[in-house]
C-alpha cells in the first residue's frame, strides 16, 4: 500500500472515530419522524408501549383532531391481548365505547396496517394518524403508507413520547441500542420484501 493510500485510510478512520457520535445520533434521528398534527378521521394506536400512545390519542381526540380511536394489537404472553388491554385503558380514560374500533389479531406492523385499513374502510373513515414510539415511526410510516395507498386511505405518523426509549444518545444505553438496531433490521427486511 502506498504512502498516500495509508494516509487516506488513517484519515478515514480518524474522521469516522471523531464523527461517530453525530453519525450515531443521525442514525437514530432518521428513524424518528413526525408529520405535523392535522385533523384526521381516526387516531391509530398499535400495540407496544401503549400508555403514552393512548394518552396522546386521547388528547388528540379531546382537542378535535379526530373522531375515532382505532386500536390494533394481538396476543402476547399467557392469555393476554394488547388490543383488549388498550381498549379497557381507553374506556377508563373517557374515550366513548362507540368511537373505538378494535383489531385484536395483529402480530406485526404489517398486520396492524392491513387490519386498521379494513376497519377504517368498513366505517367510511379515510384518514388516520399512527401513534407510535419514535424509533418505530419511520418503519410504521412506510408500512402504513404502502398498505393504505392500495385502499385509497391517507395516513400520517406521529412520534409519541416513550418512557422506555430516549432518542438522545441512544447508543449509550443497551436497551435503546437493541431497539434501534432491531428497527433498522426490520425496516431493511420490509423494504426487501418480507412481511
Kindly summarize this structure in a few lines.
With 195 residues, the chain is α/β, with parallel strands linked by helices.
Task: Supply database-style keywords.
five-stranded parallel sheet, alpha/beta, Rossmann fold, 7 strands, two-stranded antiparallel ribbon, globular
Element layout with pairings:
Blueprint: H1 3-18, H2 20-31, E1 42-46, H3 50-62, E2 68-72, E3 75-76, E4 80-81, H4 82-92, E5 100-103, H5 109-122, E6 127-132, H6 137-151, E7 154-159, H7 174-191
Parallel strand pairs: 1-2, 1-6, 2-5, 6-7
Antiparallel strand pairs: 3-4
General description of the model:
This protein has helices at residues 3-18, 20-31, 50-62, 82-92, 109-122, 137-151, 174-191; strands spanning 42-46, 68-72, 75-76, 80-81, 100-103, 127-132, 154-159. The protein has 195 residues and is of the alpha/beta class. The chain has a single domain, classed as HUPs (Rossmann fold). Strand 1, helix 3 (50-62) and strand 2 (68-72) form a beta-alpha-beta unit.
N-to-C SSE series?
Answer: HHEHEEEHEHEHEH
Straight-line distance between termini:
45 Å
Share of β-strand residues: 15-25%
SS element count, helices: 7
The helix content, as a percent range, equals: 40-55%
Amino acid at each position: 500500500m502506498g504512502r498516500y493510500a495509508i494516509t487516506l485510510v488513517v484519515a478515514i478512520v480518524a474522521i469516522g472515530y471523531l464523527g461517530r457520535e453525530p453519525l450515531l445520533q443521525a442514525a437514530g434521528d432518521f428513524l424518528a419522524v413526525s408529520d405535523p398534527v392535522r385533523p384526521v378521521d381516526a387516531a391509530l394506536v398499535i400495540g407496544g408501549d401503549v400508555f403514552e400512545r393512548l394518552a396522546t390519542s386521547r388528547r388528540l381526540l379531546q382537542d378535535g383532531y379526530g373522531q375515532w380511536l382505532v386500536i390494533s394489537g394481538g396476543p402476547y404472553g399467557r392469555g393476554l391481548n394488547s388490543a383488549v388491554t388498550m381498549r379497557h385503558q381507553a374506556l377508563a380514560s373517557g374515550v366513548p365505547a362507540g368511537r373505538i374500533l378494535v383489531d385484536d389479531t395483529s402480530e406485526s406492523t404489517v398486520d396492524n396496517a392491513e387490519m386498521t385499513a379494513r376497519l377504517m374502510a368498513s366505517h367510511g373513515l379515510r384518514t388516520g394518524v399512527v401513534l407510535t414510539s419514535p424509533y418505530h415511526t419511520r418503519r410504521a410510516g412506510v408500512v402504513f403508507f404502502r398498505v393504505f395507498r392500495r385502499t385509497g386511505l391517507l395516513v400520517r405518523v406521529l412520534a409519541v413520547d416513550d418512557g422506555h426509549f430516549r432518542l438522545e444518545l441512544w447508543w449509550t444505553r443497551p436497551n435503546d441500542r437493541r431497539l434501534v438496531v432491531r428497527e433498522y433490521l426490520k425496516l431493511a427486511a420490509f423494504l426487501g420484501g418480507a412481511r
